[in-house]
Design goal:
This protein is α/β, with parallel strands linked by helices. It contains 15 helices and 13 strands. Helix 2 links the parallel strand 3 and strand 4. The protein starts with 9 loop residues before the first helix and ends with a strand. The N terminus is likely disordered.
Length: 322
C-alpha cells in the first residue's frame, strides 16, 4: 500500500533504487491512436518513461498515462509497479522516469516533511507544487480522486446503527462503548495521523480491547463478517463496493487529502509542454468513485491493470485502438 511514513535513510534509499530495476522496463507496444486527446500526435519523436508505485490504483494510473503518451505519438517505456512511494518518486526527481501520478498528501507529509496537512485540497496541491518545484519536478493540477483513510461499516450493521459520520461513531462509543470495535493496521493504530489522532480529534476513548490489529488486506473481510463493527479502509478501494460497505464521512476533516495529480520531471515538461494539455482532461475525469470501479476490476475481478486502463480510455473516447 501507500508509503506515508518518513523518508528512508540515504543509504537505504540508494540500495532501494539500485535494486528496483530503474534501467529496465518494457516498451508499450499497443496500437493506439488519438481520440479526443493527442490529435496531431504532438509527442511524435519523443521517448518517455512512465512509472508508478506497486499498488493496483497507481499501476492503473501509470498505464493510463503511458497509453495517452503513446497515442500522442511518443515511444513509451513502462517502468510501473516500483516498490513503494520513494522509489517511484525518486525516479522522476532524478529523470530516470518522466512522469508519475502521485498523491498530494504523500508529497506534503512524506516527501516534504510537514506534520500538519492543509485541509483545503486545492491549497494543499498549490503548496506542494510551489515547494516541490525546487526538486526538479512539476505538479500538474490534481484530480478530485482522493485516496485517503476512512472508517467503514457493513451495510447490514449500519441498518441498525445508521452511522454517517465519524462524529456519529464518537457518539455511539460514548453511549454504548462495547458496540464499537475497530479493525486497523498496526501502523494506523499507533500513528498520530491514524487512530490516536482521530480519537483525539473526535473525543473518542476506545479501550485497547476494542482495537484489533491486522494486515490491511484482511480488514475488509473482517468488517463484512462482523468480526469488527468498523474497519480502516482507503476511500478508493474497490472492495468497498464489492463487500457492501458504507464509508463514514470525516466530518471534522482530520485525515489528510491524498488527491492524485501528475508529477512530471520539469526538464521533460519544458521540452514537451504538450504533456500538460494531454493529461488535463484525463485528470479531470478521475474521481474517487471511478477509482473504486477501476480498482475493483483489478483487485476483485482479477483483470490486468494495463487492460483496465486501456478499456477505460477507449470507452471514454480519449484514445482509439489502432
Amino acid at each position: 500500500m501507500r508509503v506515508r511514513t518518513g523518508l528512508a535513510s540515504a543509504a537505504a534509499l540508494a540500495l532501494l533504487l539500485t535494486g528496483c530495476g530503474l534501467k529496465s522496463g518494457s516498451p508499450l507496444v499497443d496500437e493506439v491512436e488519438p481520440g479526443s486527446v493527442g490529435q496531431g500526435q504532438p509527442l511524435k519523436g519523443a521517448s518517455l518513461t512512465v512509472t508508478s508505485k506497486n499498488f493496483s490504483e497507481n499501476i492503473v494510473l501509470g498505464q493510463i498515462m503511458g497509453l495517452v503518451f503513446k497515442a500522442a505519438g511518443a515511444e513509451v517505456l513502462d517502468r510501473t509497479n516500483l516498490p513503494g512511494s520513494i522509489s517511484a518518486r525518486e525516479a522522476v526527481v532524478k529523470g530516470d522516469a518522466d512522469a508519475l501520478y502521485d498523491y498530494t498528501g504523500t508529497a506534503w507529509i512524506t516527501y516534504l516533511g510537514h506534520a500538519e496537512p492543509i485541509v483545503d485540497p486545492q491549497k494543499q496541491w498549490k503548496a506542494v507544487r510551489d515547494e516541490d518545484i525546487g526538486n526538479g519536478v512539476t505538479w500538474l493540477p490534481p484530480a478530485t480522486l482522493d485516496n485517503t483513510y476512512a472508517l467503514a461499516i457493513s451495510k447490514k450493521n449500519n441498518a441498525k446503527y445508521k452511522l454517517k459520520t465519524l462524529s456519529d461513531v464518537a457518539a455511539l462509543a460514548k453511549k454504548d462503548p462495547k458496540a464499537v470495535t475497530v479493525c486497523v493496521e498496526n501502523e494506523f493504530a499507533s500513528r498520530d495521523d491514524g487512530l490516536p489522532g482521530m480519537q483525539k480529534k473526535y473525543g473518542m476513548k476506545l479501550p485497547a480491547s476494542s482495537i484489533k490489529k491486522m494486515d490491511a488486506g484482511i480488514i475488509y473481510t473482517q468488517v463484512k463478517s462482523d468480526s469488527c463493527l468498523l474497519g480502516e479502509v482507503y476511500t478508493t478501494d474497490g472492495r468497498i463496493k464489492a463487500m457492501n460497505l458504507d464509508v463514514l464521512e470525516d466530518d471534522r476533516q482530520f485525515f489528510p487529502n491524498y488527491n492524485a495529480a501528475p508529477l512530471i520531471h520539469t526538464a521533460t515538461l519544458d521540452k514537451y509542454p504538450e504533456i500538460a494539455e494531454l493529461l488535463a482532461p484525463i485528470t479531470k475525469k478521475l474521481t474517487t468513485q471511478l477509482a473504486q470501479e477501476l480498482n475493483s476490476k483489478v483487485d476483485v475481478d482479477g483483470q490486468d491493470p494495463h487492460e483496465v486502463a486501456k478499456d477505460w480510455l477507449v470507452k471514454e473516447g480519449f484514445i482509439k485502438e489502432g
